[in-house]
Amino acid sequence: MPAYWITNTEVTDAESYGKYAKLAGPAIESFGGKFIVRGGKHQQFEGRDRARNVVVEFADFDTAVACYNSPAYQEALAFAKDASTRDLVVVEGA
């Protein structure tokens, strides 16, 4: 069953975050990750409103977790940590 990364982000340093995005995309795609939502129009009804929302689909939960923990993604994530405020959750699909 598929699994999803659901991320909401407020970018505070566009230049550094751009470095994250450049490295993160290939790392995610190397695990078969498919971007379902990448930014775009949204309306916040509950909780924190952050300008950037992303949903990535993976083949299964274990692959989604392995991608996050991979050296390639962790290298990318180093650029996002000080350049954004974000939440990321991995959720198993139905």
UniProtKB/TrEMBL annotation:
<protein>
    <submittedName>
        <fullName>Uncharacterized protein (DUF1330 family)</fullName>
    </submittedName>
</protein>
<feature type="domain" description="DUF1330">
    <location>
        <begin position="2"/>
        <end position="93"/>
    </location>
</feature>
<dbReference type="Pfam" id="PF07045">
    <property type="entry name" value="DUF1330"/>
</dbReference>
<dbReference type="InterPro" id="IPR011008">
    <property type="entry name" value="Dimeric_a/b-barrel"/>
</dbReference>
<dbReference type="InterPro" id="IPR010753">
    <property type="entry name" value="DUF1330"/>
</dbReference>
